[in-house]
Write a structure and sequence with these properties.
The protein is an all-alpha fold and 285 residues long. The protein has two domains: 111 residues, 434 Repressor (Amino-terminal Domain) (Orthogonal Bundle), CATH 1.10.260; 108 residues, Arc Repressor Mutant, subunit A (Orthogonal Bundle), CATH 1.10.10.10. The chain contains 14 helices and two strands. It has a two-stranded antiparallel sheet with strand order 1-2. A hairpin with a 2-residue loop joins strand 1 and strand 2. Helix 5 runs antiparallel to helix 6, helix 6 packs antiparallel against helix 7 and helix 11 packs across helix 12. It starts with a helix and ends in an 18-residue tail after the last helix.
């Protein structure tokens, strides 16, 4: 799964960088401009488009790129629209311009604090994920006790997986264990049944980083991934330990965060036909 993830990340990154760079990879707006120009080198008159969008002469744009001049805030907001930045990205871009234009150290420090707050928020998945259900303590204790309860809840959205027997066959666990978990989930309002058929009342869950169940949930599914790696199937498992620059490490992290965002855009409207587990790890050793 990790190998597949990395392959998709590279494909995803190529799609992005052919047209626009990710603003959150940069601490200087000029570097973002240069990256955008480089990524659109094949687009005829791209610099002229930037100059026109910012309502300035080509000569002024050249000075900006050389660090000898800066865009005004008014020009910056027009450029943000040209780059089709979303609200958070636009806000961050404007902060970078304000930081570059700041005339006093006091103002620079003030704007720098805001920049750092934006970067921290950008890395927080809880703030990136909007359509989420955060379970209270008493429900979390049951749902994250092992991988099975969450797997059962998600599996109930699959076609023809409505009974305890179907769940047991799909997940390769005993029917008695499935029935026990289904009833536990029913008691806390996460499943309901009509005779032998069951359905989940919630399908999307998020465990905040601050929750004590966060590491438990990660551990549950990583252990499941390790177990799955012993099976002779078509799944992909890949682990890589590498050395790289601090700047590139930040880029990798940002790429992963962007991939998570885009993966949710794909998953949300997708037909419920199969169930997969995506695990993503990127940490300093």
């Amino acid at each position: 799964m990790i190998l597949l993830l990395i392959s998709l990340l590279m494909i995803n990154n190529k799609i992005i960088t052919e047209n626009k760079a990710s603003i959150f990879e940069y601490l200087k707006y000029v570097d973002y401009l240069k990256a955008s120009i480089q990524n659109n080198a094949a687009t005829y008159g791209y610099k002229a488009q930037i100059a026109e969008a910012s309502n300035c002469q080509r000569s002024h744009l050249s000075l900006v790129l050389k660090g000898k001049a800066h865009f005004s805030i008014e020009q910056a907001i027009s450029l943000a629209d040209f780059f089709e930045l979303d609200y958070k990205s636009k806000n961050y871009f404007l902060l970078l311009v304000q930081y570059a234009r700041a005339g006093t150290q006091k103002l620079k420090l003030f704007v720098k604090t805001q920049i750092e707050e934006h970067l921290k928020a950008q890395e927080n998945l809880s703030q990136r994920i909007v359509d989420k259900t955060v379970l209270p303590e008493e429900k979390s204790t049951i749902v994250y006790s092992s991988w099975e309860p969450l797997a059962i809840i998600i599996s109930l959205s699959l076609p023809n997986i409505k009974t305890s027997a179907a769940l047991a066959g799909r997940l390769r666990i005993k029917k008695e264990q499935v029935e026990k978990i289904l009833n536990q989930l029913k008691e806390i309002g996460l499943t309901e049944n009509h005779g032998a058929d069951w359905r989940a009342t919630e399908k999307t869950f998020h465990v905040p980083k601050t929750s004590r169940f966060n590491s438990v949930n990660h551990s549950n599914w990583r252990q499941k991934a390790v177990q799955n790696s012993f099976l002779q199937n078509e799944d992909v498992h890949y682990t890589s330990v590498c050395t790289l620059s601090k700047a590139d490490a930040k880029k990798m992290k940002q790429m992963m965060l962007e991939f998570i965002d885009k993966s949710r855009e794909v998953v949300a409207p997708s037909a419920e036909e199969e169930m997969f587990c995506l695990t993503c790890d990127w940490f300093q050793v």
